[in-house]
Design a protein that fits this description.
CATH topology: hpI Integrase, Chain A
Number of helices: 9
Order of helices and strands: HHHEHEEHHHHH
Shape: globular
Number of strands: 3
Number of domains: 1
Structural class: mainly alpha
Strand order of the largest sheet: 1-2-3
CATH architecture: Orthogonal Bundle
CATH class: Mainly Alpha
Distance between the termini: 88 Å
Largest sheet: 3 strands, antiparallel
């Protein structure tokens, strides 16, 4: 993605570094694309610890900063996460790019509101990067590289929530406890969307698991079958369609004579 997104359009690229960095952060952090698009201009904060991370810690992939994002989906859910030096480098590179390429278009004294900014009609730097532009860029990216799945269908990169599922799955496969993964993904402890759990292994599951080999028993003889359609107040049940096909014995056409 780095090559085709940055290359000029005449060379087959999309010439858009912002899409490249947005998708890099989506894949690396597992955040929703809206949360990345609407990051503050400077979303990084130092860690709450006495000794700051050393250069060796950063090289080993240790957490070196805290990232604050826009939590707009789940009320009272976490809105910060720990990040490593690679994510910090992506954010710093985006800040430098904005100061070089977009700042000359702004009104004097403007302080940008977002890290990723709209290119046009944004003189006061208060509009985030347009989501539709991301969708268009990803669609062009898949078409130009002709990326297809095992069924020969063009891969739809606009389903960016798959990156989030991949990040959560990779953490679980690495042995990270479920409650830690939920906190990392910005979920509350009892908010388990996107995390598949086996109810036989988790006693806190809302729906108890049926015993293995369980089969539904026969309907009791004294229990009438449920009607496919319930009648409303003052409304009779609809007659059986088969009965409507049987002419009445009192019909004129069936009289003897």
């Amino acid at each position: 993605m780095t090559i085709i997104e940055v290359r000029p359009e005449e060379d087959g690229g999309l010439n858009d570094e912002q899409i490249m960095r947005i998708m890099m952060l989506v894949a690396r952090t597992g955040r929703r694309i809206s949360e990345i698009r609407m990051l503050d201009r400077d979303p990084l904060f130092p860690l709450d610890q006495l000794n700051p991370p050393s250069e060796q810690d950063a090289a080993d992939g240790a957490f070196v900063a805290k990232l604050r994002y826009q939590q707009t989906k789940i009320e009272q859910a976490p809105d910060t996460m720990l990040v490593d030096a690679e994510i910090v480098a992506i954010i710093r590179e985006q800040q430098q790019w904005v100061d070089t390429r977009l700042a000359p278009r702004w009104a004097p004294g403007t302080t940008p509101k977002y890290l990723f900014l709209a290119h046009k009609m944004n003189r006061h730097a208060d509009k985030a990067y347009v989501l539709e532009r991301v969708h268009q860029g990803l669609a062009k990216f898949a078409q130009r590289l002709d990326i297809r799945d095992s069924f020969g269908r063009l891969v739809d990169f606009n389903r960016t929530h798959r990156f989030r599922h991949t990040k959560a799955t990779s953490l679980l496969n690495a042995g990270v406890p479920l409650h830690v993964v939920q906190r990392y993904m910005g979920h509350l402890p009892d908010h388990d969307h996107g995390v598949r759990r086996d109810p036989r292994r988790h006693a806190r599951s809302r729906v108890p698991a049926l015993p293995q080999g369980h089969r539904r028993g026969p309907r009791p003889a004294d229990r009438p079958a449920r009607s496919l359609r319930h009648a409303g107040a003052g409304q009779a049940h609809r007659p059986d369609p088969a009965q409507r096909l049987v002419p009445s014995a009192s019909s004129p056409g069936l009289r003897e004579g």
